[in-house]
Design goal:
The protein is of the alpha+beta class and 100 residues long. It contains two helices and six strands. Strands 3-4-5-1-2-6 form a six-stranded mixed sheet, with helices on one face. A hairpin with a 2-residue loop joins strand 3 and strand 4. The longest helix is centred in the C-terminal third of the chain and has 11 residues. The protein starts with a strand and ends in a 5-residue tail after the last strand. About 10% of the residues have low confidence.
């Protein structure tokens, strides 16, 4: 399972493995400096480690696969309502910079 999260402080959004969430409003993020390493960790559903940095997040959507989560992520960049397919657009969000 993958979750689309919004980082509270930066309003960036990203699709991450559900197991990276420690609570519904906190998650762990890998310390990798390379964008490719972070993306591989996400796609590979890597097990989180206690040494990873914790971030405050807001959960926007849960998807059964990485591909479905990536599709919804594009929508999350434009709207906060991921449950419907309507054209209602709220504040524009930033695509995740993967907290490098």
């Amino acid at each position: 399972m993958y979750v689309i999260v919004e980082f509270v402080e930066t309003r960036e959004v990203e699709a991450v493995p559900e197991k990276w969430l420690t609570t519904s409003c906190h998650m762990l993020w890998p310390p990798f400096k390379s964008l490719l390493q972070v993306q591989a960790a996400i796609r590979g559903d890597m097990e989180p480690e206690n040494s990873w940095k914790s971030y405050n997040i807001r959960t926007l959507y849960t998807a059964s696969t990485y591909e479905k989560a990536r599709q919804k992520l594009r929508q999350a960049e434009d709207t906060s309502d991921l449950q419907s397919e309507g054209d209602h657009v709220t504040k524009k969000r930033k695509k995740g910079k993967l907290h490098l």
